[in-house]
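[Primary structure, fold]
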Amino acid sequence: MLWLFKGWHAGSFDRDVVGRRVGGRHAEDVQSADRESTATRERERDREREWIEGLRAGSVDVFETVFGAYAHRLHHFARLWVPADVAEDIVQDVLFDMWQRRGELKPRHDNLTGYLFAAVRNRTIDHRRHSKTVERTAAASGDSPLGMGAGPRHPDADMSADELHRAVDAALATLSVLQRAVLMLRWGQDLPMGEIARILEISENAVKLHASRGRQALAPLLEVLLDR
């Protein structure tokens, strides 16, 4: 959950939604943070371009580096929509599919982070559609499909003994899936609003709305936790 606290502390959503942190930061602090964030994104884009060039050249070492850099982040993202075991399969499928289709990557135009997160999002949509079809077919035939239907979305959510994580998990659970996705992509991946809109297939205004509402919902808890 470190991304949540880092994002909240940086106030990144306020610059996008309302311009500055309520009660807090001077204009020059906001501008400095914006410049630092922009420079960081540029460095990450340069690194992604190098990775894409390495992938296109067929470098197994680069593929292993990319796999290590993205697998956990993509898995966490996929679990917003599907169970953990399904999320793991989806992430592996997306990464290996990227490797098999590496010749289609475009170094000068493609955003590797956006490409991978969008691919994972699309696979989760396909899986949910397929699951619903299976459930409808089973219901019509009177069968009960193994592993389908209702159940805990995060079966390992109650395994952590850490009080802080439980409190944050409980707060995140009150948000809609889209609100959590927007927060994760913005604060966790530092993606711009336009890229988030493309990944989630919603408008930029919708992204800003989900960002604002999600932040407002988390504000009481995070303010308390950060003051501890």
